Amino acid sequence: MKLTKSILFLAFAIMTASANIAFSQSTNTPQPSATTTTSTIAVKGITCSKDLTMISDNVEKLKGVNSCEVAKKGATSKFKVKFDPALVTEKEIHSAIEGTGSCENPNERPYKVKQ
Question: What's the pTM value of the predicted model, to 2 decimals?
């Protein structure tokens, strides 16, 4: 009886320890640094809402970009981009925007950043 209680106690202790380790592991989600910058970027050539989504998704793939949200829809749309300038430059963000293929023809690059 004493041996059974000891084994149960040991099993409980091992399960508790392994659960604590599993829950305490950190994730690799990029955290905004103290140097996060927000920039509003105007883009011409957008014709539909899918274009907005494709551009936003493409910019958010860049390392150092925390978010890319549509700030204004229209002939010249604006994106609000939060990024860490130590990891990505505005020039790289502009290249990602202008390098995004059109939803109608993925081989076309119709989007232009308005300076």
Answer: 0.69
